[in-house]
Amino acid sequence: MSAGRTPAPRAKSPDKRRVILDAAVRVFARQGFHACRVSDIADEAGVAYGLVYHYFGSKDEVLDTLFLERWNVMLALIREVDAEAIPVRDKLRAIASFIIDSYRHDPDLMKVIIVEVTRAANSFGQTHIGQIREAYELIGGIVTEAQAEGVFKAEIEPRFAAMAFYGAIEQLLTGWIFGLLPQGEEQFERAKWLVVETVCGGLEAGAGEQPILR
Amino acid sequence: MSAGRTPAPRAKSPDKRRVILDAAVRVFARQGFHACRVSDIADEAGVAYGLVYHYFGSKDEVLDTLFLERWNVMLALIREVDAEAIPVRDKLRAIASFIIDSYRHDPDLMKVIIVEVTRAANSFGQTHIGQIREAYELIGGIVTEAQAEGVFKAEIEPRFAAMAFYGAIEQLLTGWIFGLLPQGEEQFERAKWLVVETVCGGLEAGAGEQPILR
Amino acid sequence: MSAGRTPAPRAKSPDKRRVILDAAVRVFARQGFHACRVSDIADEAGVAYGLVYHYFGSKDEVLDTLFLERWNVMLALIREVDAEAIPVRDKLRAIASFIIDSYRHDPDLMKVIIVEVTRAANSFGQTHIGQIREAYELIGGIVTEAQAEGVFKAEIEPRFAAMAFYGAIEQLLTGWIFGLLPQGEEQFERAKWLVVETVCGGLEAGAGEQPILR
Amino acid sequence: MSAGRTPAPRAKSPDKRRVILDAAVRVFARQGFHACRVSDIADEAGVAYGLVYHYFGSKDEVLDTLFLERWNVMLALIREVDAEAIPVRDKLRAIASFIIDSYRHDPDLMKVIIVEVTRAANSFGQTHIGQIREAYELIGGIVTEAQAEGVFKAEIEPRFAAMAFYGAIEQLLTGWIFGLLPQGEEQFERAKWLVVETVCGGLEAGAGEQPILR
DNA sequence: GATGAATGAGATTTCATTCAT
DNA sequence: TATGAATGAAATCTCATTCAT
Questions:
Q1: CA distance C173 to chain D (A)
Q2: Do A14-57 and A67-203 have matching folds?
Q3: Hey, CA dihedral for C136, C193, D113, C59, is it positive or negative?
Q4: Which CATH superfamily is domain A14-57 in?
Q5: Mean pLDDT throughout D137-155?
Q6: Is there contact between D and A if contact means ≥3 C-beta pairs under 8 Å?
């Protein structure tokens, strides 16, 4: 999961802008966006107060940048997956994997995105509603397609199905973030399978099962 | 869905405390907890500034009260449902119904609970982690039981299943809150069925279906 | 040292006004005038909030009352002593005794008077400047007289001498109030002698001493 | 009486920190610590509101700084004097002189120290009890020594004597602060002699006198 | 007399943002 | 680029005082 870093405009110093961004992730994750001060970010980054404002127009812009950087990578991934000629299950599995891997690689960043943006209906969630909607719609499109092919039941509206799928994943991350679910390589891998199995095959015992060996 | 209101110790004035609480719900929902001032609540309630502090120790306490009042009703409902001798599907359906009905009856309150508490990992979510965990565990217990009875697949950990189920519901509410999903009586009723059908029967076409007529 | 209580207008209930006044002394002494709230006084007195305002026009008035009640008793004592035909030393000794006994009988009240009034140059000290000045002048008068009689040196201005004398006493109380000097019956008695001996006879060894046996 | 100012690390701007401190002295003296607002200090200093908080953590800290700055200079002076091989009278005279000169040079600062700290048993007096006690003990030590040398009477406890001495001085300042005693160069000089003469030689006419010519 | 809910002015403190260097 | 002093608009919370009962 290579981050969305621009190819370093000039190979000069340790790229203070990036340093600030990375520091912001840690600070936002630790204290929350509202509870932290711009100076906390500067301190964490080891730079002067005003430098944050040299690179970013405001505190908000720092979070905006962080969110978009990552969210766009996810949108690209979903589009890519969507274009492939593979079974739905594999598509959904790829998406779940990407999100869970994102958390594995940078739990702080995903925590910030989920806690401060994705559900923040009155602040950043509203600002980025377009990007967020895009993800849901892309997933919804995959469901629609699967229904057309007869692989998915037709009576479940794609939009609702997409929300249920994405919501299940986000809730797993929430469980990890809150320390309510056990974490670890094994857990992450298992979670990928579980969420797809649950949403596609259902929790009920019966013919729906696919004896996947992982 | 009888609210957690105490039977009004004295029927004198319009119970200012309740008036403030109800006003707070509207204000928190409209502007968000952080973006609103205590005076906004007082204004909305039509009372003087200081009265908010007469009844509540702080702005935080207002939200705490709101959350606990409702969340405890939900916990009671889940426990009640859990005790009944009915099929798992019915139990999960009852829970989904309760949450969705809660949103139908008071969308502002549910918005506040989800946006400001349930996912607010650095603030109120942390404060009420115990109550929140309780809900997940109760649902997890229902899954465990269903697995013991052979109704649910054994290979999906109950805790993960519970999170997926609850996450799917909360995401539907989030969709309504953000205006991404259509709302209305019909939609709410359908959503109850959808979420249970998705999680229990799975999205995939096949034997898992229960041709429920609703 | 009977307090300046009015002869109880009606012998009815436990005289709430007095109860409030006594409670205020304890609260002012414990927390300081500024740090305590009117409700603290009411709580300490075991009466309702508003009753304080039934008897007193304001929080200030409570302290004013407390101060005047006691200070006037002291002024009366000084005048009385002044009128007697006894040696200066005995007069000063009587005054020192009265103040120290006042502290012995009600340390809280004296603490309040000294801390909140006597040195509070910008608040109550200013309000009661007249009463306070009166005390200093009466003492100054005693010194003047002693000088006229040739008992006291003539080159020390009476006003300065009066301040030194009163200041020495008040500082002893301050030492007790701050817990810097040991307290107790014996200490109090000794203090009465010490302060007079110091100011009249001086600290220096020599002929000035009066081998008083106490 | 060189103030406790650090030698100005950088001579750049008019050292806003110092400007604020000096302004605070004037404001505290004029209105009293409790009756003034932080904005009054800022206004008096001609700086923005927030700058006070840039340099000081709180309103309290401003007063703490003011007190300690000056009090420590006094403690140093007393220690210095104590170490010299001069008569007690000269030692006490030096201390009285220092305090009175402090008032002469900056009456506002001494007013603040006496009114807001030295007698404020429930607030700042308590905070700085250690520093305050130190002064009394040093003076007490001087008395003890004088007694050992036979210069001072042995039957007056040093601690009490120290309090009487310091209290007499502080009361003179209080007299000036309240406008009860005449001020002026001549008065200040005379006061230095008076207080020492009173406490050492006593008010009584007789052998105790030292015909000092000043 | 007695109660305590209700009022609202005002104080401290915070902190995003600007800007001179 | 980089710094951090300086700004000042808010926001929370306190609490003396009022007043209907």
A1: 10
A2: no
A3: negative
A4: Homeodomain-like (1.10.10.60)
A5: 96
A6: no
Fold classified for C67-203: Tetracycline Repressor; domain 2 (1.10.357)
pLDDT of residue B213: 43
What does the DSSP assignment read for A114-157? IIIIIT-TTTHHHHTHHHHHHHHHHHHHHHHHHHHTTSB-SSS-
Q: State the pLDDT at residue B16.
A: 94
In this complex, do A164 and B195 lie within 8 Å of one another by their Cβ atoms? yes
Contacts for C164 with CB less than 8 Å, ≥ 6 apart: C199, D168, D171, D172, D194, D195, D198, D199
DSSP state of D201: I
Compute, in degrees rounded to 10, the torsion defined by CA atoms D119, D120, D124, D129.
Answer: 50
- pLDDT 10s per residue in chain B (214 long)? 444 334 434 434 569 999 999 999 999 999 999 999 999 999 999 999 999 999 999 999 999 999 999 999 999 999 999 999 999 999 999 999 999 999 999 999 999 999 999 999 999 999 999 999 999 999 999 999 999 999 999 999 999 999 999 999 999 999 999 999 999 999 999 999 999 999 999 988 864 555 444 4
Token pair 């140059």 in the structure block, residue: C121
Cross-chain residue pair A167–B163, CB shorter than 8 Å:
no
pTM above 0.85, yes or no: yes
Residue extents of the structural domains in chain A: 14-57, 67-203
Residue-level pLDDT at A86: 97
pLDDT digits (tens, 9 = 90+) for A75-108: 999 999 999 999 999 999 999 999 999 999 999 9
Which residue has tokens 């000063």?
Answer: C92
Distances (CA, A) of B155 to A190, A205, B149, B207, C31: 10, 10, 14, 19, 64
Interface test with A, best of B123, B128, B163, B212 (most A CBs within 10 A): B163
Q: Is it the case that residue C13 has pLDDT exceeding 70?
A: no
Can you tell me the distance from the alpha carbon of D134 to that of D137, in angstroms, rounded to the nearest whole number?
5
CB within 7 A of nucleic chain E: A 35-39, 49-50, 53, 58-60; B 13, 16-17, 47-51, 53-55; C 13, 16-17, 47-51, 53-55; D 36-39, 49-50, 53-54, 57-60
**pLDDT score at B204:** 84
> Who among B114, B119, B197 is closest to A115 (CB)?
B119
Nucleotide whose C1' lies closest to the alpha carbon of residue B49: E8
Asked whether strand F has any atom less than 7 Å from the CB of C150, the reply is no
* CB of A54 lies under 7 Å from some atom of strand F: yes
User: CB–CB of A211/B164 below 8 Å?
Assistant: no
Which of C35, C123, C175 is closest, CB to CB, to D163?
Answer: C175
The two three-digit tokens of residue B214, written as one number? 């609703």
Question: Which nucleotide minimizes the distance between its C1' and the CA of B48?
Answer: E7
Q: Which residues of C touch D34 (CB under 8 A)?
A: 34, 123
Which structure tokens are listed for A208?
């729906």
Six-digit token pair at D76? 């140093």
CB atoms C121 and D152 under 8 Å: no
